[in-house]
Write a structure and sequence with these properties.
The chain is an all-alpha fold. It has a single domain, classed as Ribonucleotide Reductase, subunit A. Helices cover about 70% and strands about 0% of the residues. It contains eleven helices and two strands; from the N terminus they run H-H-H-H-H-H-H-H-H-H-E-E-H. It has a two-stranded antiparallel sheet. A hairpin with a 2-residue loop joins strand 1 and strand 2. Helix 2 packs parallel to helix 5 and helix 4 runs antiparallel to helix 8. It is globular.
Length: about 325
């Protein structure tokens, strides 16, 4: 998932040196950002390689499946403890209508995405060969359901969609903000892999493909990229404080889930070369689609700004996170 070359500001062309300098600046900013995220409470503890500088050299401390479960016990939180009173004021009185519309793409992708993965994770959990793996993935199913409830409370109590009565109604309204690539990734590629696992849970190559798609691409390259930029922007603007608090908890959960994915894929890649090929095969199939998911449907230019970051910076962040994890797995 590579970002397009950046053009020199104020010109219609770019040189190789311009592009190289711009790419280096973006990479440097991404590295600093990942270091800042790692310093937040509980994030480094997840053992996600994206938050470890040593992962640039293919080295990382990975937690075992049991350790990841115990970490889940220590990192509990409740959606019902969040107070969205100020968020409602911010949404309706401080955030202009055009900006609310632009924000809806990121919010919608997460709301629908959390619902989709909650529905799809069961067959992946049941197909895992080890009990410790299945126990951890059971906690992830609970996490994903909590994330759906978090977004539903935000939408309901802030009044994102006035006149909607329940979760199903709000999910239907939210889908109108998604792009075609989102449907291809979640409703086609992920759903088909999970259906295959449900029918043939002993198909370990399909399991490796599903974990690659789910944990490395959907959660690792897409979700955490959007989470970071949305949280940072709202923090800088001093808007939606309860949302920021809850979304930080969601992001910490996702780093823990991704750490499971890296642990699992590292183990499988070492076990048999055909699993390495399955990881690479899924990457080749899914990354072009995932690249399109990052682009909001309202964008009319190849490069756009959202939450204070350009398309190039957004894609570079996702690519750097993915590269670090793939190096630890032994495939980059």
């Amino acid at each position: 998932m590579e970002a397009k070359p950046l053009e020199a500001e104020g010109s219609g062309v770019h040189t190789t040196d311009d592009a190289a300098a711009a790419a280096e600046a973006v990479a440097s900013r991404t590295a600093r950002t990942l270091s800042e995220i790692a310093r937040q409470e509980g994030f480094q503890e997840t053992s996600d390689p994206a938050l470890q500088e040593s992962a640039d050299r293919g080295k990382a401390k990975l937690l075992s499946y049991k350790e990841l479960y115990l970490l889940w016990e220590r990192q509990q939180w409740a959606t019902q403890e969040l107070d969205f009173s100020q968020d409602r004021i911010d949404w309706h009185e401080r955030i202009p209508p055009e900006e609310r519309f632009q924000r809806m793409y990121g919010l919608s992708g997460f709301f629908i995405g959390e619902q989709r993965v909650t529905d799809e994770l069961g067959p992946i959990m049941r197909a895992c060969p080890q009990e410790e793996q299945r126990i951890f993935l059971s906690t992830q199913i609970a996490d994903e359901a909590r994330h759906v409830r978090f977004f539903d409370r935000f939408y309901s109590e802030v009044g994102v969609y006035e006149g909607t009565d329940d979760l199903a109604d709000r999910l239907r309204r939210t889908e109108e903000h998604l792009n075609e690539s989102f449907g291809q990734l979640f409703d086609d590629l992920l759903h088909n892999r999970v259906d295959r696992l449900a029918a043939e849970p002993e198909d370990t190559e399909a399991l490796v493909e599903a974990v690659t798609l789910y944990h490395m691409i959907i959660e690792g390259a897409l979700a955490l990229t959007g989470q970071h930029f949305i949280i940072e922007y709202n923090t800088e603007q001093e808007t939606l404080p309860a949302f920021v608090e809850g979304f930080n908890n969601v992001a910490r959960d996702e780093h823990r889930h991704i750490a499971f994915g890296v642990r699992f894929l590292t183990d499988m890649a070492r076990e048999d070369d055909r699993y390495r090929q399955a990881i690479q095969r899924m990457m080749g199939e899914a990354l072009p689609i995932a690249d399109g998911v990052l682009d909001p449907p309202w964008a009319e230019e190849d490069d756009w700004d959202l939450f204070g970051y350009s398309r190039a910076e957004t894609h570079a962040f996702a690519a750097q996170c993915l590269t670090r994890r793939m190096k630890v797995i032994g495939l980059a």
